[in-house]
Each structure stands twice: as C-alpha cells, then as structure tokens.
Amino acid sequence: MTKRVAFVTGGNGGIGSAICRELVVQGHKVVAGYFPPEKESAEAWQKQMHEDGVAIGLAGVDVADFQDCERAINEITEEFGPVDILVNCAGITRDGTLKKMPEENWKAVMATNLDSAFNVTRHVINGMLERGWGRIVNIASVNGQRGQFGQANYSAAKAGMHGFTMAVALETAAKGITVNTVSPGYIATAMTEAMPDEVLQSIINSVPMRRMGKPEEIANTVAWLASEANAYTTGANIPVNGGLFTSH
User: Fold this and answer.
1) How many structural domains are present in the chain?
2) Full 3-state SS string of the chain
3) What angle do CA 141, 150, 152 make, to 5 degrees?
4) Which listed residue (34, 154, 186, 232) is catalytic?
5) Would 99 be classed as within a structural domain?
6) Is 182 part of a structural domain of the chain?
7) In degrees, to the nearest 5, what angle opens at C-alpha 221 toward C-alphas 21 and 203?
8) For residue range 201-223, what is the model confidence (pLDDT) as tens digits?
9) Which is nearest to 51 in space by CA: 59, 39, 43, 40?
10) Is residue 100 a part of any domain in this protein?
11) What is the pLDDT of residues 84-130, one digit of tens each?
12) How far apart are the C-alpha atoms of 49 and 165, rounded to whole Å?
C-alpha cells in the first residue's frame, strides 16, 4: 500500500476523529486540521490519540479564510509532504428558523461549511493534477439532501457541497482524481449524546434502523473512497444514514 499524506479538516471532532483513526489504520500519514482558538484542546486530543497508538499531525487553520488555508497547506506540505487525500469535514451549526435568522448566522455557516471546501481544495488541487492522483471526500449531511426545519443555512451549505463535488469531479476525472460526498445521518457523537433523552429517542424512532450511526461507519466509507481501490467512483453522494433518506 502506498503511504500518502491525508489532511482532514475538523479532524479533532467526533466524526473527524474516527476518520483520522481509520486513515492511520489504512497506512496513511494523517494531519488533522483544527480551529486555531481551540489549540489547547486540539493538542490534548492529539496526546490522547498518541497514547492510543494513533500518530496524527496537527495543523491550526481557519477554513473560512482563503489565505490562511494557503498558509496551512504550504506548512503541511513542507513538514509532511504534498496532500494526496483531502477530507473536508469542518462544520458548524447556527440553527434557527429563517424568519429569525440573523445575517451573521447565515454567513458563518456558509463560510465554515461551504466556502471552506473551496478554500482548502483550491490549494491542493493543482498538486494532485500534477501528480496524477488524488482523493477528495466532502462530508455533507442527510439534511443537505432532504432539508431540515430550522436549518436553512446548514441544509443549503451541505447541499452546496455536493454541487461542488460534482463539478470538481468532472474537472478532474481524467487526471486520476476522485471527488465524492459522504452524507451522514444522525451519528452518535459527544454533541448528540448531550441531547435530552426524549429528543434522542425521537431521533432514533425516526431512523428505519432504529439506532444512531457510529462515527466509525462514516470513517469506513471515507477510507474506501480515499483508497487506491476506488479509482472509478467519482461525483457520487454516498448516504450513510440508516435508511433515514433514500433516493434513486
């Protein structure tokens, strides 16, 4: 197996952590991106991962800032090597109905969840094209496919991510690069576990499989899309949602 450099934005989050772990298991050199003000918690997370036998690099980057993404990619390339696998996993929520949504909540979610995909990918794509190999996986959401009450900003950003995936897939398909979207459903993370029991139960009742997904189930899908074996699937939106939303 060829050892490649993988960069996972939002790598220290619930789903991001599982993706980082799985990519290390697959033999890759993994760098996790984190939001710079969270440096202390990111370093504690890295230490815990190392204690678990999972060696991961760290890169502080504001994915909403184009220039900062350029700096981060240059530094990663210098320290670890060129990025051949990119997982755009960074995301935030600022929920609220549209009639009450402040402009800053719309802009913040768009910047972090959608603009970030351009901001980071733009700085790795030319290297991938030159080398004739690359894997890009964009983490969207079931709510980008079906919409969600109180999430006009989040749903729009996640739907936009797959539009970005399809266009970039077409631009790079002849050059050994695959670009795909993974759309998770409700996944058991620290964030969802903090919900009140009755809310959690109502979510579980809405899922045909009658359970939350595991972060590892997202990570396994990402790892396959990022592998040498996946040389012919590109422009796809892979649902990992327990049957919550199905489409033709």
Assistant:
1) 1
2) CCCCEEEECCCCCHHHHHHHHHHHHCCCEEEEEECHHHHHHHHHHHHHHHHCCCCCEEEECCCCCHHHHHHHHHHHHHHCCCEEEEEECCCCCCCCCHHHCCHHHHHHHHHHHHHHHHHHHCCCHHHHHHHCCEEEEEECCHHHHHCCCCCHHHHHHHHHHHHHHHHHHHHHHHHCEEEEEEEECCECCHHHHCCCHHHHHHHHHHCCCCCCECHHHHHHHHHHHCCCCCCCCCCCEEEECCCCCCCC
3) 60
4) 154
5) yes
6) yes
7) 95
8) 999 999 999 999 999 999 999 99
9) 43
10) yes
11) 999 999 999 999 999 999 999 999 999 999 999 999 999 999 999 99
12) 30
Q: Is residue 204 part of a domain?
A: no
What type of residue sits at position 51? E
Domain that holds residue 56: 5-187+216-236
pTM of the model: 0.97
- What's the whole-number average pLDDT of the chain? 96
Catalytic annotation on 154?
yes
Q: Which residues pair with 60 in a beta bridge?
A: 34
Q: Which residue has the tokens 């934005």?
A: 9
Domain with 45 in it: what CATH number?
Answer: 3.40.50.720
Distance from C-alpha of 34 to C-alpha of 23, rounded to nearest angstrom? 17
Q: What number of CA atoms fall less than 13 Å from residue 74's CA on the CB side?
A: 6
